[in-house]
Amino acid sequence: MRVEKFMMRALGVLWVLLAVVCVGRSGHHIGHGVEARDNAADDSDNNLSLVTSANKDFAFRLYKKLSDHSDSQGKNIFFSPASISAALAALSVGARGETHQQLFSALGYSSSQLAQTDVDQAFRTLLANLTKGSAVFVDKLFKPKPEFLDVLKQSYSAEGFSVDFLNSTEAANTINQYVSDKTNGKINKLVESLDPNTVMYLLSYIYYKGEWEIPFVSLCTREDDFNVEENKKVRVQMMTMEEDVSTYIDQEIHTSVLHLPLRNLYSMLLLLPDNMTMLENNISPAHVNKWMKSMELRVWNIFVPKFSIKTSSKLNDVLKGMGITDVFGDQANLSGLAEEKNLLVSEVVHQATLDVNEAGVSAAAVTGIRYVNYSGIEGPIPELKFNRPFMVIITERNAENILFIGKIVNPII
Ligand SMILES: *[C@@H]1O[C@H](CO)[C@@H](O)[C@H](O)[C@H]1NC(C)=O
Ligand SMILES: *[C@@H]1O[C@H](CO)[C@@H](O)[C@H](O)[C@H]1NC(C)=O
Ligand SMILES: *[C@@H]1O[C@H](CO)[C@@H](O)[C@H](O)[C@H]1NC(C)=O
Ligand SMILES: *[C@@H]1O[C@H](CO)[C@@H](O)[C@H](O)[C@H]1NC(C)=O
Ligand SMILES: *[C@@H]1O[C@H](CO)[C@@H](O)[C@H](O)[C@H]1NC(C)=O
Ligand SMILES: *[C@@H]1O[C@H](CO)[C@@H](O)[C@H](O)[C@H]1NC(C)=O
After folding, report:
1. 24: Cα within 13 Å, side-chain hemisphere
2. Mind listing the domains of the chain with CATH numbers?
3. Which residues in the chain land under pLDDT 50?
4. What pLDDT does residue 23 have?
5. Looking at the chain, which terminus has fewer C-beta neighbours within 10 angstroms, N or C?
6. Which residue's alpha carbon is at the smallest distance from atom 5 of ligand 4?
7. In the prediction, which pLDDT does 187 show?
8. What are phi and psi of 343, to 5 degrees?
């Protein structure tokens, strides 16, 4: 059967996702004037809200799968559910039959309520403010259906390129260069080597660089301990500020939640649990909504490590665990993608980076306009110190779209 496999023409759709995020390096403080709102647009478009709410749910199911996976024990997790949903939705454009069904149901889209075109339409409007998109690298001898490329271009901001996968060095260089350009050099080596059987390489990227509304002051950053495990400490650069910040202490799952607003209506939530397993077992979109709604603004002395992490994961197994199986094997029905038989997806890879740091110097210069109301405070100012494993979520302020989610176990890996 070896021979038969070998003779299959042009198999292997290699699928790559990547996500890059950079938080920090602020400009100016613009205050708390901007608040969560804007569900009106969603209400008028039921399909959009069906897709958004399925995406949120998918984000946490995927997180759970990734954190349960044996490979991830004791490791940082960081990924962009928005980018992965987009890439899988784009793949489903070319999928048919059971293959399509599996993708749809793993993504949480109900076929009775949503057609593929509704999903495409929703992705066209989602995350409109971010640098995001996708690219299709097609072998010069492979002919995808024009309708497929058309939808990818219209709804998933895809750019198309023709490459010669038989010259795998050249093809890999072309892809790496593209990715590097799109991510400001953050991810510069996505592809090591390419299987010469590859006929198409599809990647989706999201690049987010956010600035804190209230930047940290670099001069206050100090080296400090971070407790990776009970008996394992590492030294980190700990940023600090004493500020009016929004927090929520969730008694139910013993987690302190800190909300740090980013500019342009995005937010970073930092979740410090007493028991990480309990948080991971329970976290859901409903929790995020509850926290965002019930935050209290008051003065805290907060400590957040400065860090820069990079994660790279092959998602095949995790996606199979979520019911996406056919697309990876001989049963794959990608007949909407090309006439070509024997197409399958060989790999789904996701890379993401996260940089968290203070404000730049210019931000420090404008911090003077901040107003901290100390008058209502009795006793010492409480501390919230992220000096043991915590989770991060980067989301739209209205909690509708989750850009990134992760767990920082060790900030200096
Ligand atoms: C793929 O799915 C379509 C639509 O369900 C079906 O007509 C076609 O026979 C399937 N092709 C294969 C190879 O299973
Ligand atoms: C929403 O989806 C339904 C079912 O697929 C479709 O009939 C309807 O036209 C869609 N609505 C919009 C506004 O696209
Ligand atoms: C592969 O591409 C490189 C760069 O364009 C070129 O120099 C080389 O000759 C090519 N190799 C083959 C086998 O075509
Ligand atoms: C997107 O950008 C526009 C214009 O800057 C702004 O009004 C809107 O609130 C932004 N939306 C999000 C979700 O950031
Ligand atoms: C953490 O929570 C998990 C699940 O609720 C529980 O099994 C475990 O015993 C807890 N660990 C500690 C140290 O309390
Ligand atoms: C400052 O805090 C006190 C006590 O919480 C409150 O009564 C007062 O209105 C606050 N002042 C301003 C300007 O917010």
Report:
1. 19
2. 11-28+39-210+309-354 (3.30.497.10), 218-305+363-408 (2.30.39.10)
3. 1-16, 20-44, 359-374
4. 44
5. N
6. 264
7. 79
8. -85, 140
